[in-house]
Amino acid sequence: MKKIKVFAPASIANLGCGFDIMGMALDEVGDVLEMTLDEEGSGISIANDTDVPLPQDAEDNVITPVIRKFFALTGHTGRVQVRILKKIYPGSGIGSSAASSAAAAFGINELFGAPLSEEDVVVCAMEGENLASGGYHADNAAPAVMGGITLIRGYEPLDIIKLPVPGNLYCPVIHPHLTVSTKEARSILPREIPMHTAITQWGNVGGLVAGLCTGNIELVGRAMRDAVAEPYRKHFIPGFDELRAKLLGAGALAMNISGSGPSVFALANRSDIAQRVGAIMERHFAQQGILSETYVVKVSNKGARLIA
C-alpha cells in the first residue's frame, strides 16, 4: 500500500483576452487529496472529508475519469482510494473542478513512479474538466498542474507553454454568492465576431504574452482586456463597470471576470494595493446585499505537488 497527500492550486482562466487558452495558478488556495494505492486490487473509491457538497457517487466525481485516463495511457491497474481533505467550493470561478482533477492526475502519476510527462498529466486532468463542463479545456487544468501562467497554443495536438511570472504580481479575487452556469455563460457568446474585434483581441493576447516575457507589468495590465466574452458575460455581475472603475482608480492594473464567473479578479504590483482592491471588492458586493469570499494572494509558480 502506498499513501500520499497532494495539493493543487486554485486558478484563474482566460485572463481577460486569453479565452480558453490562458490561465494562472494562485498561491495558498486549493484542494488537498489523500490518495492510497493497492496495486493488487482494482476500483476507485472517493470519500469527502470536507463540508463542501460533492457527488456521492464516484462516477459523478471529476476524480474518477482522471484516474481512468491515467490507467488507459499507462496500462497500469490498481485500487485507488481518495479522501478529499480540502476543497474549493464548486462554482466559485477559481477552478474548483480543475484543482481536484489536477491533484488526482498528479497524485496517481506519483503513486506509480511518475511515468507520464507533465503535459500528459494535464491531459488526464482535462478528463475531469470534461465531466464538469462538457468540454476538454486546459485553461484551468494546465496552471493547476504546472503552476504559473500557461498558454495553450493549440489543442490538436495539445501544446502548452509556461510563461514567466513577474515576482511582484498579486491577485485579489472575489467570489460573490451568485449563480452563473458555465453552460449558460457559453451559450450567450456569439459564434462569429467582427474582424475589428478579433484584431483587438489578438493585439491584447500578444501584448499580455510580451508583457509577461519582458516583466513589463504595466503592459500586462493594459493588455489584460477582453473584447470577445466580457461584453456579454459582465451582465451576470451587478455593477461590473462601476467596480472596474473603482479598482483601477485604487491602483489595480486590470480587472476581469474569472473564467465564466461569477468570480472577479484584479491584478496589482504591490501588496498594499492588492489588499485595498480586495476590500473595495468586498464593499461593492456587500452594498448590494451579496455575500462573498475574498482571497488576496500572489500568482504562484507552483502547481500540483506532494505535501506529505
**What's the CATH architecture of the largest domain?**
2-Layer Sandwich
Give the DSSP E fraction (strand runs of 2 or more residues). Answer: 25-35%
Total strands: the figure is 11
CATH fold type of the largest domain: Ribosomal Protein S5, domain 2
- So how many helices? 10
Give the termini distance in whole angstroms: 15 Å
Compute the gyration radius: what is it? 19 Å
Instruction: Spell the H/E element sequence.
Output: EEEHEHHHEEEHHHHHEEHEE
Structural class: alpha+beta
Low-confidence parts:
none
**Major sheet:** 7 strands, mixed
Quickly name the level 1 CATH class of the largest domain: Alpha Beta
- Count of the separate structural domains: 2
Global shape: globular
Overall helicity: 25-40%
Question: What do the pLDDT scores average to?
Answer: 94
A few lines on this structure:
The chain is of the alpha+beta class and 308 residues long. Helices cover 37% and strands 26% of the residues. Helix 1 (63-74) links the parallel strand 3 (43-48) and strand 4.
Task: Supply the key terms.
seven-stranded mixed sheet, Ribosomal Protein S5, domain 2, Alpha-Beta Plaits, 308 residues, 26% strand, 2 domains, 37% helix, four-stranded antiparallel sheet
What does this protein look like?
With 308 residues, this protein is α+β, with helices and mostly antiparallel strands. It folds into 2 domains: 2-164 and 301-306, Ribosomal Protein S5, domain 2 (2-Layer Sandwich), CATH 3.30.230; 170-298, Alpha-Beta Plaits (2-Layer Sandwich), CATH 3.30.70.890. 37% of the residues lie in helices and 26% in strands. It is built from 10 helices and 11 strands. The protein has helices spanning 63-74, 96-111, 118-133, 141-146, 182-187, 195-214, 217-223, 230-233, 240-249, 271-286; strands spanning 2-13, 22-38, 43-48, 79-86, 149-155, 158-163, 170-176, 254-257, 264-267, 292-298, 305-306. The strands form 2 sheets. Strands 1, 2, 3, 4, 5, 6 and 11 form a 7-stranded mixed beta sheet that branches. A 4-stranded antiparallel beta sheet has the order 8-9-7-10, sandwiched between helices. It is globular, with a radius of gyration of 19 Å. The relative contact order is 0.19.
